[in-house]
Design brief:
By secondary structure, the chain is an alpha+beta fold. It contains 11 helices and 7 strands. The longest helix has 21 residues.
Length: about 280
C-alpha cells in the first residue's frame, strides 16, 4: 500500500489557521474543564459522570450497528438525564458557584495554612481527644479535606470559631445541646457542631461499635474526611477514613494520622506569602 503524504500537509494547513486567540480560547477551556474535574474527582459525582460516558458510548455504538430500538431508548434516556443533571449534581454545582462568588474557583485546592498554625491546630485536636478519652466523654470530630461538607454542616448549629482545646471541650460537655452529633472542622476553625452524619450500611461490623463509630464510618464512605471518634464506654480514640475504622490511637499516632490534613501540600513561594498574609489578617 503506497504511503499517503497528504496527511502531514493537511496538518500543516490546519496549524496555519490557528491564531493566538484560538490558543487562548483552548487554554481557557482547558483550565475550566480541569477545575471542574478537580471539583468532582473525589466525589460521588465522578461515578455519575462515568455512567453518562458509558451511555453516550453505547448510544454511538448502537447507532453505528443499526440497533434502532436500543438507540432510541438510549437517546430518550439521555434527554431525561440532561433534565436530571442539575438535581444529581446539586452539591457540586452549589459548591462551584460558592467558590466563584468568593473568588476561590481558580485557587489551588488544599490547605493554605501556615505550617506553624497547622501544627498548632493538630496539637489542639490531639489535646482535646486525649482529655475526652481520659474522662470517657463521647465525641465525633470531622476534619474536612478536599471535599467540602456544607451539606453536613447545615444539619447542625453554625459556629465558625477558632480551634482550641478549651473551646472543643466545652462543645462536648455532656447533656448540652452541642454534645450529641459531630463537630465539623475546616482548617483551623470549627464551623458547625451537633451535625448529623449518615450511618454505614455495612452489616459486617462488630457489634461492639456504637452509633458514633457507625456514623463516622458512614461519612468516611462518602467523602475524604478524617473522623476522630472518642468512645463513651471505653475512652478509646479511633479514626475513620475511606470506610475503615482504625482504633486505639495515642497522642503520637493520632498527631501523625491527622497532620497531613492540615500541613500545606505546596511549598511554592506564592502560597507561602499568601498563607502568611491570611494568618496576619
Amino acid at each position: 500500500m503506497p504511503l499517503d503524504f497528504e496527511f502531514p500537509a493537511k496538518v500543516r494547513d490546519l496549524v496555519a489557521t490557528i491564531g493566538w486567540l484560538d490558543i487562548l480560547d483552548i487554554f481557557i477551556v482547558a483550565v475550566i474543564l480541569y477545575k471542574i474535574y478537580q471539583q468532582v474527582r473525589d466525589t460521588r459525582a465522578i461515578t455519575l459522570l462515568k455512567g453518562l460516558v458509558v451511555i453516550a458510548a453505547l448510544t454511538i455504538i448502537c447507532g453505528k450497528i443499526n440497533l434502532h430500538v436500543m438507540t432510541w431508548l438510549l437517546q430518550r434516556a439521555s434527554d431525561w438525564l440532561l433534565i436530571a443533571l442539575p438535581i444529581l449534581f446539586q452539591p457540586e454545582l452549589r459548591r462551584a458557584l460558592e467558590q466563584i462568588g468568593q473568588g476561590k474557583f481558580f485557587q489551588q485546592s488544599g490547605s493554605l495554612m501556615d505550617k506553624d498554625l497547622a501544627e498548632k491546630t493538630v496539637d489542639e485536636l490531639v489535646k482535646t481527644a486525649k482529655k475526652l478519652s481520659q474522662t470517657k466523654t463521647g465525641a465525633l470530630m470531622v476534619i474536612e479535606r478536599e471535599m467540602k461538607l456544607n451539606d453536613i454542616s447545615v444539619t447542625g448549629i453554625h459556629i465558625d470559631g477558632l480551634i482550641s482545646s478549651e473551646f472543643l471541650l466545652n462543645v462536648f460537655i455532656v447533656n448540652t445541646p452541642l454534645h450529641d452529633g459531630a463537630a465539623i472542622i475546616r482548617g483551623n476553625r470549627l464551623i458547625s457542631a451537633a451535625c448529623v452524619l449518615p450511618l454505614t450500611e455495612n452489616h459486617e461490623l462488630s457489634t461492639e461499635l456504637g452509633t458514633r463509630h457507625r456514623a463516622a464510618i458512614g461519612l468516611s464512605e462518602q467523602c475524604d474526611a478524617l473522623i476522630i471518634v472518642v468512645s463513651e464506654e471505653t475512652g478509646t480514640i479511633s479514626v475513620a477514613e475511606g470506610g475503615h475504622l482504625m482504633r486505639r490511637f495515642d497522642e503520637q499516632t493520632l498527631a501523625a494520622k491527622i497532620r497531613p490534613a492540615f500541613v500545606p501540600k505546596s511549598n511554592s513561594i506564592f502560597e507561602k506569602l499568601f498563607a502568611k498574609w491570611r494568618v496576619e489578617k
